[in-house]
């Protein structure tokens, strides 16, 4: 069975292919390999049932020139959105390692809204792209400055986790490093109105936090930092600034 060992270097190379222009057709062999990989992903919550299906892009409302879309379905249990983010980011980075371009596509819809009682959550579109079309300098990507997402003692990884992808680039995370513990919060700037309606913001930002936790853990592992993770329920839709998501005791 395939084991993906080096997610870390793919963080620098990944990007969203908002439009898949050029590239080569994704082969059936690629799809088979991706399906094999999907069997090996590690969930954040092993007890939440999920289903992941690959369909042709034309079976969805995604028209970005991709070949296929990966559809994520889940039991709607506490933590299910960050679980999907955490799993999906493993796939995003794996696709990057194969020179397959990807796009988390939140606004996408699909015909099958439910599979065996599991709800449709989100999709990732993909197509094989030329190696040269991937990211060349991650540090040039548009992101919040470090001081807006990190407090307490700085770590090298802070300047890497900053580049985690998020819906509409909202970057809804905040980390506090104190007493050898990283506290990760879902962050919502008070009163700030973006282009997304508030219920959508709450939905996507919980997926974003799962993506962030996976990138953060990948960076900690790369630096050989041992940690114990504790996850916290994030159930309230109240518009508070910071909601504790996870703690990493180092
Ligand atoms: C959960 C999620 C949903 C997203 N949904 C969309 C979408 O519907 N349409 C789109 O064009 N991009 C979508 N994106 C891509 C983001 O706009 C992109 O990740 C962000 O701007 C950062 O850019 P980068 O991924 O190239 O680093 C989504 C990203 C995430 C993580």
Description:
This protein folds into two domains: 126 residues, 3-Layer(aba) Sandwich (NADH Oxidase), CATH 3.40.109; 108 residues, putative nitroreductase (tm1586), domain 2 (NADH Oxidase, 3-Layer(aba) Sandwich), CATH 3.40.109.30. The strands form two sheets. Strands 1, 2, 3, 4 and 5 form a five-stranded antiparallel beta sheet that branches. The protein has a five-stranded mixed beta sheet with strand order 6-7-8-10-9. The protein has five helices and ten strands, in the order ααββαββββαββαββ. It has 250 residues and is α+β, with helices and mostly antiparallel strands. Flavin mononucleotide binds next to strand 3 and helix 5.
Features:
single chain, 250 residues, alpha+beta, NADH Oxidase, 2 domains, five-stranded antiparallel sheet, five-stranded mixed sheet, 5 helices, 10 strands, 24% strand, globular, binds flavin mononucleotide
Task: Please give a quick description of this structure.
With 250 residues, the protein is α+β, with helices and mostly antiparallel strands. The protein has helices at 8-13, 28-38, 80-97, 158-161, 198-222, and strands at 50-56, 68-74, 100-105, 114-115, 118-128, 150-152, 173-178, 181-187, 228-231, 242-249. Strands 1, 2, 3, 4 and 5 form a 5-stranded antiparallel sheet that branches. A 5-stranded mixed sheet has the order 6-7-8-10-9.
Low-confidence stretches: none
Structural classification: alpha+beta
Any idea what the CATH architecture of the largest domain is? 3-Layer(aba) Sandwich
Please tally the β strands and state the result. 10
- Proportion of strand residues: 15-25%
CATH superfamily of the largest domain: NADH Oxidase
Kindly provide the name of the CATH class of the largest domain.
Answer: Alpha Beta
Taken from the alpha-carbon principal axes, the silhouette is globular
CATH topology of the largest domain: NADH Oxidase
């Amino acid at each position: 069975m395939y084991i993906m060992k080096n997610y870390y270097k793919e963080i620098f190379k990944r990007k969203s292919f908002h439009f898949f222009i050029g590239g080569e057709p994704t082969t059936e062999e690629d799809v088979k390999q991706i399906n094999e990989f999907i069997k090996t992903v590690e969930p954040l919550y092993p007890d939440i049932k999920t289903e992941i299906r690959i369909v042709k892009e034309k079976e969805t409302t995604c028209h970005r020139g991709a070949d296929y879309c990966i559809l994520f379905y889940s039991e709607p249990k506490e933590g299910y959105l960050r679980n999907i983010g955490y799993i999906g980011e493993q796939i995003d980075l794996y696709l990057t390692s194969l020179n397959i371009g990807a796009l988390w596509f939140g606004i996408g819809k699909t015909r099958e809204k439910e599979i065996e009682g599991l709800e449709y959550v989100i999709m990732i579109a993909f197509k094989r792209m030329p190696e040269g079309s991937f990211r060349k300098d991650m540090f040039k990507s548009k992101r919040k400055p470090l001081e807006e997402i990190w407090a307490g003692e700085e770590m090298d990884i802070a300047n890497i986790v900053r580049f985690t992808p998020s819906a509409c680039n909202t970057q809804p995370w905040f980390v506090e490093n104190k007493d050898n513990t990283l506290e990760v919060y879902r962050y919502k700037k008070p009163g700030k109105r973006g282009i997304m309606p508030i219920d959508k913001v709450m939905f996507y930002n919980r997926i974003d936090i799962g993506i962030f936790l996976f990138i953060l853990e990948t960076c900690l592992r790369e630096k050989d930092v041992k940690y114990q993770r504790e996850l916290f329920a994030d159930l309230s839709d109240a518009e508070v600034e910071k909601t504790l998501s996870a703690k990493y005791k180092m």
